[in-house]
Structures are given as structure tokens and as C-alpha cells.
Design goal:
CATH architecture of the largest domain in chain B: Orthogonal Bundle
Largest sheet of chain A: 6 strands, mixed
Number of strands of chain A: 10
Structural class of chain B: mainly alpha
Strand content of chain B: under 5%
Strand order of the largest sheet of chain A: 6-7-8-3-9-10
Largest interface: A-B, 27 and 22 residues
Strand content of chain A: 15-25%
Distance between the termini of chain B: 12 Å
Shape of chain B: flat
CATH topology of chain A: Rossmann fold
Number of domains of chain B: 2
CATH architecture of chain A: 3-Layer(aba) Sandwich
Number of domains of chain A: 1
Oligomer: heterodimer
Number of strands of chain B: 0
Distance between the termini of chain A: 15 Å
Radius of gyration of chain A: 19 Å
């Protein structure tokens, strides 16, 4: 199983859709290493991570918790710059945050003093576009099914609703990259299931590139077109697995069950399944 | 902080309202409740009535004006309370909103009767330190104009000082939270001067400023400015960095981050600073008026003491308490309005 996964990684460049990715990479992560200084010790979190993402892909970044996946997302968001290596889009290296690349966090981090509508509008407001595109806010509010909660305050929402608002707040900017940092991690199992489907549906219609950090293998398999499996910290890419399955997917699908076992083995948990 | 914690939930009069929602409340117990309310209203009426009658009938041991007016006032209140008791029997809906004041009315009536008897009637409490209620009423009726003038003078001084202190403190706090260079210069100064009680500047300020009026405004501003600065600063520093990340990825400029993220997030802290500052400003105001300013409630108080006019002092103290309490209430109202998004806002 490990070999097959590795083979997929090395031969990935020639497979049809990856070919498209290499010809027209929407995002290129080239030989990126990154770390922090904690007091005097240097903590390496990313070790020569290298991959390309094609237009319209949905990438799941899977790995043990604390391995550095979230850091990778922050690099793509432009909130940090890598110690070495390059993260670049078609427009060139990423030097800072930009509304075309929006992060959605595990916590909804809604602004508690703003109503739902105003929370969603903040991106447009920050760029001075709100006056011209108020309807856009209403549209995304409808997209996530919260049109009746425009005037609610964040504390009046359930966890799932708050996370939907957070998603809408990202989508209103019409991002090219939606960076999802375990956005469903704190939701209950049922809300989680429905939101997984919802995010995939939105991704299919909006056409952005999605990068999803998760440590839920099933979630990765249900949602992504490609799964990058990371090692323990410092994170290296252990495998790059393509999921060629139509949506909506079923967790009991034979291929998905096989691939789940494959990934579990890669993560060193083959016997736990 | 305990001063900010609400006692409104523990409303003792709540138990005097018929509680239809309680499942266990049978009709009998509601009737029992109703009876208790009527008895309470009549008892309160009797207490006020006796205060009035004592004042009218018994001989005063000293010479105080306005005794008749006080007696009439107490008897009118007594009559009102009696009417409330009667109305509750026949038209309970009309008097429902005022029922929560009944326990306080009873205690207040008893207090007034005891006060009247122990001062004007028996001379139990030493004169002139304990004037009777009619003497206070006399002050309000005959010297009310002067009192009102004093209140306005105090308010003018206070509002100017609080305004400048709050504006400068808020601006400085935000600046400290947002720019490290400002912290380098301001932090040592704040640490040295901030904890100093503003009244300590009083002698210095009175000769450094052209007038005692200007000096007092400066001192009040100082008293308000320090807590507002510190709490605004800590509020801005305490903002969850994730809020900044969210806004930054969506294209927010630095100015936008300050205006739309840092300041709203810090506002609850700012109001704690204002609350503390307002308390400190009262201290400075009254001290300044007692020491040099020739107007205001503190000045009135000093003047009354000079004439051994104890009734005027008590009246002034009461007015001062009402003024300070109203200002704190006003502050909390503004806060509740601005921070209406908060789930469990503290109540005043």
C-alpha cells in the first residue's frame, strides 16, 4: 500500500489532471521550509514541502495534529513568509495577505460586535466595495442558508451556523483560494456531515481552489480531489493521493474504504482500524 | 469589580408579584399573596401617616420651619400608599408596576417617623448636628435655587474635565496599543505619574493655572485620563490576534484594523476605565471645590459647614449622591446602548 501511494506521488506528474496542474499551477509551493523560534530553540515545522495545485482542485492536507499543516495555510494566506523556498500563485510570489486568498479558521472568529450581515460585509467594507455590492452579501447569506439571520448577533448562533457565517464571510470576497483550517473540527457529527456536502457544493459552483487542513481521513476522502499526507513535525509530504470519484461520495464506497486504509497505514495506524 | 455585578436579579420585591407562571401556585396561595400585598401597603401607609401626625401634633423642641409642609407631604404619601392597597383589591392591574416599591416605602416611612421623633420631638439626638426632616425640606424649598446653581457649576466643571480626560485617555490608550514607539516614551511616564492621586497636584495646579477653574478641569481630566488610558491600552492589546488575521486576509488596511477591529474589541475595557475614572473624578471635583473653586456642591458644603448649617450639609450630601449616581447610571446606559451585542452585560 505504501509503495502504491508513493508511486502515485512520483508518477503523479504524468497523470492527466496533474499534467494540467503542472502546466497551469494555480498555486506552487516550492521547496518550502519554515520554523519558529521558541525562546532559544528553533522549532522546524515544515521541511522542504513541494507541491503544485491546479485550477479548481480541492486539496486536503492530512497529517498528525501539530505537524505544521496550519502553518502551511498561513503561508499561502500570506500571513507569514517562509524561511526558505517560495509560495507563489500565477501572479508571482506571495508576499502578504490578499483578499483572493481567504482563511477560514477552526473557530468562526466572528466579530461579536457586528451582526451577521455586517460580519459578512467586512471584507467588502475594508476594500471600499460595500456600497456597490451590498447584494453580494445577501447572495452569500442565502448561499449558506442564513438569510433569516442577517440581523442576529454571533452569540445568538449555534456552532454550525456561526461556521456558516464564517464561510460566507470568506466567500463574499469571491476568493481564488479558500483556505480551510479544520473549519468543521469543533462541530457535532451531524452538522459536520451536512457542512461537508455544503462546502463541496459551493466549491463546485464557485470554482475556487480549496485547501482543507484536517485530521479526519474520512472528511478528506469525501471532499477532496487530492489528499496530501504529511509526516510528523517537521512536516514533509509522505504521499500525494488522487481521489477520482464523483460527488456526492459515500463513505462505504469500496475505493474510498481502500484508500482510507492506505492513508491510515501511511500515518502508522494500520493496526488501529 | 464587585461593584459592577448586578443585584437586579435578586429583586426582593419579585416575591410580591403574583407569579402565574409557577405551576405549583394554586389560587389559594395567589390570594394569600394578594392579602400580603394589601397588608404591606396599609402598613407603609400607616408608617408615613404616623410620621406626618407626629410632626403635626407633637411639640417641636427647637425652631424649624416647614414642619407643616413636611407633615402634609408625609400624609399625602400615606394616602397614596393606602389607595394603592385599596386599588390592589379591586383593580390589581393598575398598581402592578409600583408594587415592587412597597417594601422600601414601609422602611422609609418607619425611618422618617423615627427620625422625626428622635430629633424634632424628643431631642434624643444632639442638636444642631442632627436636624429633623422638615429642616432638610426647608433647605430644598428655600435654598433650592442656590443648590441648583451649585449642581450646575459642579456639572460644568466635571463634564469639561471628564470630556478632555476621556478623549485624551482613549486616544493615548489606542496609540499605546498600536505603536511600540509611543509605548517606549509614554510607558515610564504613565508608570511614574499614573498611580499618583490627582488631588496631590492640587496645590501645584492652583498656582500653575490661571484660574482654579482651569486647574480643576486639568485635575479631573488627569483623574479620568489615567484609568481610561490603561484600560483602553490593555483592551487593544488583548484583542484576539485571529480577528486581525481575518480582517487582514480580507484586505483591511492598518487604519481599518484600528478603527473597525481594535477599537470595537477594546470598548468593553474602555468603559471599565471610564467607570473607574468617573469615580476618581468625583473625588477630585469635590476636593477642588472645597479647596479653591468658588462654586459647586463642594463649595456649598464648605460654606454650609462654616455657618454650622447642618441641614444644608445633609441636603447637599443628598444632592451630591443623586448627581454622582445619576452620572454613573448615564454612563452605564451609554455602555449598554453601545455594547448591546453583549450577551451578559453587567447591570447597574
Amino acid at each position: 500500500m505504501v509503495e502504491s501511494a508513493l508511486r502515485e506521488r512520483t508518477s503523479g506528474e504524468v497523470s492527466a489532471s496533474s499534467l494540467q496542474a503542472s502546466l497551469l499551477p494555480a498555486l506552487a509551493v516550492r521547496d518550502v521550509s519554515h520554523g519558529f523560534f521558541l525562546r532559544d530553540t528553533h522549532l522546524q515545522v515544515l521541511d522542504r514541502v513541494d507541491f503544485s495545485v491546479g485550477v479548481g482542485e480541492f486539496i486536503a492536507l492530512l497529517g498528525p495534529s501539530g505537524c505544521g499543516k496550519s502553518t502551511l495555510l498561513r503561508l499561502v494566506a500570506g500571513l507569514e513568509t517562509p524561511v526558505s523556498g517560495v509560495v507563489a500563485t500565477e501572479e508571482g510570489p506571495i508576499l502578504g495577505p490578499d483578499p483572493s486568498r481567504i482563511l477560514v479558521f477552526q473557530d468562526p472568529t466572528l466579530f461579536p460586535w457586528r451582526k451577521v450581515w455586517d460580519n459578512i460585509a467586512i471584507g467588502l467594507e475594508a476594500r471600499g466595495l460595500l456600497r456597490a455590492s451590498r447584494a453580494r452579501v445577501d447572495d452569500v447569506l442565502r448561499l449558506v442558508g442564513l438569510q433569516n439571520f442577517a440581523n442576529a448577533y454571533p452569540h445568538q448562533l449555534s456552532g454550525g451556523m456561526a461556521q456558516r457565517v464564517s464561510l460566507a464571510r470568506a466567500l463574499v470576497n469571491d476568493p481564488k483560494f479558500l483556505l480551510l483550517d479544520e473549519p468543521l473540527g469543533k462541530l457535532d457529527a451531524l452538522t459536520r456531515l451536512s457542512m461537508q456536502g455544503e462546502i463541496v457544493r459551493i466549491w463546485q459552483s464557485a470554482g475556487f481552489v480549496a485547501l482543507l487542513v484536517t485530521h479526519d481521513i474520512e472528511e478528506a476522502l469525501l471532499m477532496a480531489t487530492r489528499v496530501l499526507v504529511f509526516s510528523e513535525r517537521p512536516a514533509r509530504i509522505k504521499a500525494d493521493i488522487r481521489i477520482d470519484k464523483a460527488y456526492p461520495r459515500h463513505r462505504d464506497d469500496e475505493d474510498l474504504v481502500r484508500q482510507r486504509h492506505e492513508i491510515l497505514t501511511l500515518l502508522g495506524h494500520a493496526s488501529d482500524w | 469589580m464587585s461593584a459592577l455585578i448586578s443585584t437586579r436579579d435578586a429583586d426582593p420585591a419579585g416575591s410580591f408579584r403574583p407569579q402565574e407562571s409557577t405551576v405549583s401556585a394554586s389560587k389559594k396561595s395567589v390570594a394569600g399573596h394578594s392579602q400580603a400585598i394589601v397588608i404591606l401597603a396599609f402598613a407603609a401607609s400607616a408608617a408615613w401617616g404616623s410620621a406626618g401626625i407626629i410632626t403635626q401634633v407633637a411639640e417641636d423642641v427647637g425652631d424649624w420651619g416647614r414642619a407643616t409642609e413636611f407633615a402634609i407631604l408625609a400624609e399625602v404619601v400615606s394616602g397614596l400608599l393606602f389607595t394603592i392597597g385599596l386599588l390592589h383589591l379591586f383593580l390589581p392591574r393598575i398598581v402592578a408596576p409600583v408594587l415592587r416599591f412597597l417594601p422600601w416605602s414601609l422602611v422609609l416611612g418607619l425611618f422618617l417617623a423615627a427620625w422625626e421623633w428622635s430629633t424634632a420631638k424628643s431631642g434624643l439626638l444632639p442638636m444642631p448636628f442632627f436636624p429633623p426632616p422638615q429642616a432638610l425640606l426647608e433647605v430644598f424649598l428655600d435654598d433650592g435655587g442656590k443648590l441648583l446653581e451649585s449642581v450646575l457649576a459642579s456639572l460644568e466643571l466635571l463634564s469639561l474635565g471628564v470630556f478632555f480626560g476621556a478623549v485624551v485617555g482613549f486616544g493615548l490608550g489606542v496609540a499605546l496599543g498600536c505603536w511600540k514607539a509611543i509605548g517606549y516614551w509614554m510607558h515610564p511616564i504613565l508608570r511614574l505619574i499614573g498611580p499618583l492621586p490627582p488631588v496631590a497636584w492640587l496645590p501645584l495646579a492652583f498656582f500653575a493655572f490661571p484660574s482654579s477653574h482651569a486647574a480643576s478641569i486639568f485635575l479631573i481630566a488627569l483623574a479620568v485620563g489615567f484609568p481610561v488610558t490603561i484600560l483602553t491600552w490593555s483592551g487593544v492589546r488583548g484583542v484576539d490576534p485571529a480577528y486581525y488575521d481575518v480582517a487582514r486576509t480580507m484586505g483591511a488596511s492598518r487604519w481599518f484594523l484600528i478603527r473597525k477591529v481594535a477599537i470595537p474589541a477594546a470598548l468593553p475595557h474602555v468603559f471599565i476605565g471610564l467607570f473607574m475614572g468617573l469615580g476618581a473624578s468625583f473625588v477630585v471635583l469635590v476636593t477642588a471645590e472645597m479647596m479653591g473653586v468658588k462654586a459647586g456642591l463642594g463649595f456649598y458644603m464648605n460654606w454650609a459647614q462654616g455657618w454650622a448649617a447642618y441641614a444644608n450639609m445633609y441636603a447637599c450630601l443628598l444632592v451630591m449622591a443623586l448627581m454622582c449616581s445619576s452620572l454613573v447610571t448615564l454612563l452605564f446606559k451609554v455602555r449598554d446602548w453601545l455594547l448591546s451585542y453583549q450577551k451578559n452585560a453587567l447591570q447597574w
